[in-house]
Amino acid sequence: MALTEGFRPHRVVVLALDGLLPFELGIPHRIFGRPTDARGRRLYEVVTCSVRPPGPVETDADFALHVGHGPEALADADTVIVPASYELGPVFEEGRLTDELARALARVRPGTRLASICTGAYVLAAAGFLDGRPATTHWADAERFQRMFPRVRVDADVLFVDDGDVLTSAGVAAGIDLCLHMVRRDFGTAVANEVARRTVVPPHRDGGQAQYIERPVPDPQLATTTAARAWALGRLHEPIQLRDMAEQEAMSVRTFTRRFREEVGVSPGRWLSRQRVERARQLLESSDLTMDQVAREAGFGTAQSMRQHLQQALGVTPTAYRRTFRTAAKGAGDPCGQKVSTARATRPASASARALAKSSTG
Question: Which of the two ends of the chain, N or C, has the fewest CB atoms closer than 10 A to its terminal CB?
Answer without folding.
Answer: C
